[in-house]
Specification:
Keywords: Signal. About 15% of the residues lie in helices and about 45% in strands. With about 140 residues, the chain is of the alpha+beta class. It has a single domain, classed as Lipocalin. The chain has a 9-stranded antiparallel sheet. A hairpin with a 4-residue loop joins strand 7 and strand 8. It is globular, with a radius of gyration of 15 Å.
């Protein structure tokens, strides 16, 4: 089943409804421009962040494929200019060999608050190359 923007949004909402995130959380729907093929960076990334509690969750194609739904993510920086998130996806050993032996993919995502620009970079464990991409996010306040 292809992972369309609508399917991702439905999956994110379904998993986040029972979450502990409070009112006034911000949902970022981020469209990535020209992600490199086979880089692990998809065309869509969703991040839900509650600045009051510091909790954040993310969903993209790789998270959906390997974890089945959104996951909690670390907030590394949250100031008036930007917010930076980090999460890792551990891939099953059976797939590591068929995909070049990358057992762990670590995402670092920075969203600039004023412009809503996003920068995504990946650290592929055991590899020197670090794929990255840019894009733009739409925001929506999520009320209780």
């Amino acid at each position: 089943m292809p992972l369309t923007p609508k399917a991702l949004a439905v999956a994110l909402c379904a998993f986040l409804v029972p979450s502990a995130l409070q009112a006034q959380a911000v949902l970022y729907t981020c469209h990535i421009r020209h992600p490199a093929p086979h880089s692990g960076i998809g065309k869509l990334i969703y991040v839900l962040h509650d600045p009051a509690t510091g909790e954040a969750r993310a969903l993209d194609g790789m998270i959906k494929q390997y974890r089945g739904g959104d996951i909690p993510v670390k907030v590394l920086v949250d100031n008036s200019a930007r917010t930076t998130y980090r999460w890792s996806i551990k891939r099953p050993k059976s797939e590591n060999m068929s995909h070049g032996g990358i057992p762990l993919v670590t995402y670092t995502v920075t969203i600039m608050k004023a412009s809503k620009a996003i920068h995504v970079s990946l650290n592929l464990s055991g590899w020197d190359n670090k794929p990255s991409a840019n894009g733009h996010c739409e925001t929506k306040l999520m009320k209780k």
